[in-house]
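Supplementary Methods S3. Input chains for the assembly prediction are listed below.
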Amino acid sequence: MEESLDVDECLRRWKEGSEAAAEEIIQHLYPVISKIVRTHLPRRDDEKDLIQEILMKTFAKLHQYKGDAPLSHWVSRLALTTCLDRLRAQKIRPEVRHADLTPDEVDAFNAAWLTGSSPDSTKAIAARDLVDRILSNLSPEDRSLVLMVDLEGRSLQEISETTGWTVSKIKMRLFRIRPQLRQMIQRLEESK
Amino acid sequence: MNKNDPETTWKNLLASSASTFEPELTPPFGFVTNTLSALRAEQRQERECERIGLRALWASLAALGVAAAVTLAVGLHQDNSDLDPGVRSLVQVENLPYS
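Predicted structure tokens for the full assembly:
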């Protein structure tokens, strides 16, 4: 993605006050930030506002960018930190129970729970809402970590570079989160 | 019907919801314009703050300069002795020599 834009040239023009350069930077960073916001925040959050907030922060701190890592990596970290801050400000929901699920969420859960049924993409939104419900019981950092590993399939080293956490800290967290997740899903089934 | 273990259930749920995690590749209509205008407003505000700060700095420097000049002038105007004011008046009245 970095190749599609001459970042140094664009930054130089932006520092000289070129609005066209700012527009190019926004266009270039939009999918990167959108991916992070969609992954790390619950579906119902207003992502456009948050993407704009992250872009404003990016421009405000752009003078600190040294160019030793790709701009998208640098912005990813900023975006992730902003998402985690937003999650911390939200209330932790009480434990999820089967009775709280919507009919679509129940269908999505049953499709995932019963063997022989393949993932149903027509129930994507319901499945996502259920994923968000389950993850809302974890801390913001744990939530993001689970998604980086289970959804994006990122390596521990990559996660370490993005979050600034050490690999051993990530391992420890994962070791602690797995039983919690298992328990939540088990309880969801048992509370039917 | 048999049931999956929680780990597989979780993976299935993620697989079902995968499409909702897909990023938007291009900004929606009006987004770039809004962001650029917010950026302009923020830069304007920043410049304004800088200008106010600079003015305040110059004003306090000027006040400091005036205060220094007044102190210096008063110091020069006074007799250049280290006597107390009362003793200095007595010396002046009596026209006594002192060193």
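The interface with chain A takes residues 1-4, 6-7, 9-28, 31-32, 34-36, 38-40, 42 of chain B (CB under 8 Å). The mean pLDDT of chain B is 84.
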